[in-house]
Specification:
26 helices; ABC1_dom; transmembrane helix; Kinase-like_dom_sf; 668 residues; UbiB_kinase; 5-stranded antiparallel β-sheet; alpha+beta
Length: 668
């Protein structure tokens, strides 16, 4: 009983000791379960290995009386043998850590929840793949071809099959397709036109469900916020539906209410969309050409943001402030373009209450437009054009989803902009470059337009600038002579950018898209509206406003203050430098692109190289001493050089283990 207890205690001590020493030697945390397992293995292998070592050296084992002169040698040899077993145990820990690094044990509850989510995600993933295969577009994800896919012999057939797949896959995929349909810089025809036909189909929610969402999100009973709400929705979409209502003070409003399951559905599909996009980009040329993984990642992030109506409220107020600034500068056009007012007290994450905009979408206003005089329609188109161009180039905040469905022709003949889920923001420096590009493009200066465009986009290193300039010039020349027909100078310019494999930043792609959709809106109002001719007279004044003398003076003042602050620091720095020179303690710190201290990195690298060389030298020296033998005989067949070799080799071996572990840690 006592022997068993002593053995158990020794085994536990050995296990703990292995874990403790491994942490000290490796300089990193090691999982206790594997430390205990290796420690027990060291304990049970230690005795057999020690006995084998004693037999090999000719010394008696524990069953034979030990001469008094050999006691210390015998004890030392046992300790050295156990140390080597211990070192081999640490090596086993290093190997296990390198292959399977220690991770925190998950919470059992979290583990079960993750398994349930994984099961649900897998079922949804397989459902999407089945839908894709049914429509013959499985090649998008696995790169192979089937009998059905072979029937899709033309680009038009493949595009229609992709649209059918997206329609069946649900709201998140439909919205992804709608976003892709606006990225002319990424998507070629006929896929672009096919994706533009996507429409979300949604059933209306029962009023009790809508009421519960409103009261939960606002944290108050309905009658404390609204005088009345029409239970019948004004419109219903896949993510939200809209109801007419009146506030307590009688103000007519519309209430946009998010569907309860919308966020859960989008979050569940976001991971699947990312995985499918990754497979499509890795395995198919179409996916690589479209850079679909990057687009999908940006889309899912944007879509999740759009589910927070507080962001849409902020977007709406920003665009409203730009319209107000434009109206102040041009009082004669005040209220011709309006943005609905947000009622913040009746809005939150899933509920958005805004001013009711009476009227019909431009796309449904053909009869009303036809009843207007030509002069009124011309003025309306010019005001809308100047508003959007000024928002983009002067203020840098604009409606990023401007199409005839989001522009309403109001009862009083003015225009109302709605739906600000997507708003573009462009910083001032890029707005100046874009203004210069548009000025050059509208005046058909292909050289200046190309130079300005190269300041806006991210050109590849191997770009053929002359060929790019030639294609830009062709677009400018032909567009200046074309007065009728479909298309836009901006869409053709984006086609040129895509054909030359130039990356167009997302916010600039939104701006170009807004210019193109603006032209579409203008031609709904006036079917032969010449946006190029009408915009050209505006550009000099807009350029003066973006690069005005006042702004230049302000910039100069800001730069002067910064330069003065830097100059004021020079005397103190010179004084510190001279003081250091007198003391002989001048130091230079080099920093890399990431901001890390290059000197410190070099110092650590030099120390690691020296440590590696010392460890290797120790191991080599140990091998030489053990193999060569020699030196005084200590007992049995043990020589002094052999013992020294075993000791030196042990420390060299542990040093190499530490280096190996650090190497794997950096790679991880």
């Amino acid at each position: 009983m006592v022997a068993t207890l002593l053995i158990s205690i020794s085994a536990i001590v050995s296990a703990v000791l292995v874990g403790f020493v491994a942490r000290r030697v490796l300089g990193t945390a090691v999982g206790w379960p594997r430390s205990i397992a290796v420690g027990l293995l060291v304990f049970f292998l230690g005795v057999p290995f020690t006995q084998w070592t004693l037999r090999q050296t000719g010394l008696p084992d524990a069953t034979t009386p030990i001469p008094a002169d050999d006691v210390w040698l015998w004890v030392g040899l046992i300790a050295l043998s156990l140390a080597w077993v211990f070192a081999l145990g640490v090596a086993a820990l290093v190997a296990s850590e390198a292959i399977f690094p220690t991770r925190a044990l998950p919470n059992p509850v979290d583990l079960v929840r993750a398994a349930l989510r994984q099961r649900k995600r897998t079922r949804r993933y397989l459902e999407i793949l089945a839908i894709a295969s049914r429509h013959g577009v499985g090649w998008l994800f696995h790169g192979g071809r089937s009998r059905v896919e072979e029937q899709l012999s033309t680009s038009e057939e493949r595009a229609n099959a992709i649209v059918a797949t997206i329609n069946d896959a649900g709201v998140s995929f439909v919205k992804l397709g709608q976003v892709l349909s606006t990225r002319r810089d990424l998507i070629p025809e006929p896929y672009l036109s096919a994706l533009a036909s996507l429409q979300t189909k949604a059933t209306t929610l029962p009023w009790d469900t809508v009421r519960a969402v409103i009261e939960t999100d606002l944290g108050r009973p309905l009658d404390q916020v609204y005088a009345d709400v029409d239970p019948s929705p004004l419109a219903a979409a896949s993510v939200a539906q809209v109801h007419r209502a009146h506030l307590l003070d009688g103000t007519a409003v519309v209430v946009k209410v998010q569907r309860p399951a919308a966020r859960a559905q989008v979050e569940a599909d976001a991971d699947i969309i990312g995985r499918l996009a990754h497979r499509a980009e890795m395995r198919t040329r179409v996916g690589r050409d479209l850079r679909i993984e990057s687009v999908a990642r940006g889309f899912t992030a944007t879509l999740l943001e759009e589910l927070d109506y507080r962001i849409e409220a902020r977007n709406t107020m920003m665009v409203a402030s730009t319209v107000d600034l434009i109206d102040r500068a041009q009082p004669d056009r005040r209220s011709m373009v309006t943005v609905p007012r947000i009622h913040a007290a009746a809005s939150h994450q899933r509920v958005l209450t805004m001013e009711l905009v009476d009227g019909t979408a431009l796309s449904d206003s053909a009869e009303r437009l036809a009843a207007m005089t030509a002069d009124d329609r011309e003025r309306l188109a010019r005001v809308l054009m100047s508003t959007v161009i000024e928002q983009i180039l002067v203020y840098g905040v604009f409606h990023a989803d401007l199409h005839p469905g989001n522009v309403l022709l109001r009862e009083n003949g003015s225009l109302g902009l709605i739906d600000f889920g997507a708003v573009g923001v462009i910083e001032r420096s890029r707005r100046q470059h874009m203004t210069a590009f548009l000025l050059a493009a509208l005046s058909e200066n292909d050289v200046a337009a190309t130079d300005a465009l190269l300041l806006i986009v991210d050109p590849p290193d191997d770009l053929d600038v002359e060929a790019f300039r030639h294609d830009v010039g062709i677009v400018l020349t032909t567009e200046h002579l074309r007065t009728t027909g479909q298309g836009s100078i901006f869409t053709r310019m984006v086609d040129v950018i895509r054909q030359h494999h130039i990356a167009l930043p997302g916010e600039l792609a939104s701006a170009f898209r807004s210019f193109a959709t603006l032209e579409g809106c203008l031609r709904v109002i006036v079917d032969d509206f010449d946006m190029v001719g009408e915009a050209l007279p505006l550009m000099p004044s807009l350029l003066r406003r973006t690069v005005s003398a006042k702004k230049m003076l302000t910039d100069l003042q800001a730069q002067s203050v910064i330069s003065l602050a830097r100059l004021q620091r020079i005397p103190r720095r010179l004084e510190n430098l001279l003081a250091g020179a007198e003391k002989g303690s001048i130091g230079i710190t080099l920093r890399g692109e990431s901001g890390d201290d290059v000197g410190g990195i070099l110092g650590r690298t030099t120390a690691e190289i020296a440590s590696t060389l010392v460890s290797i030298a120790a191991v080599v020296l140990a091998v030489v001493l053990v193999v060569a033998g020699g030196g005084p005989v200590l007992g049995g067949s043990i020589t002094l050089f052999g013992v020294l070799g075993a000791v030196i080799g042990l420390f060299g071996f542990l040093g190499l283990l530490r280096i190996v572990r650090r190497t794997f840690t950096r790679k991880g």
